[in-house]
Amino acid sequence: MIPDLGKYAGVVMWSYIATIALIAALVVLSLWQGAKVKRQLREVEERQGRDHG
């Protein structure tokens, strides 16, 4: 079911690859940033627990 793209096949293929790579990078960066924020929040909560405990 692959359409015949003629001379545009290479451009379309690289566009798909670039799009998939960018989406994958966004997912990885989001997961990394989420873990970083979670770690920072845990540190703040630990400090508050010691100060008010």
Describe what is shown at a glance.
Helices cover 83% and strands 0% of the residues. The protein is mainly α.
Q: Find the structural class using helix and strand composition.
A: mainly alpha
Pick out the low-confidence regions. Answer: none
Question: What pattern of helices and strands is seen along the backbone?
Answer: H
The value of Rg in angstroms is: 22 Å
Shape: rod-shaped
Largest sheet: none
**Helicity range:** over 70%
Whole-number mean pLDDT:
90
Describe this structure in words.
By secondary structure, this protein is mainly α. It contains one helix and no strands. The chain has one helix spanning 9-52. The protein is rod-shaped, with a radius of gyration of 22 Å. The termini are far apart.
Key words describing this protein structure:
53 residues; mainly alpha; rod-shaped
Layout of strands and helices, then pairs:
Layout: H1 9-52
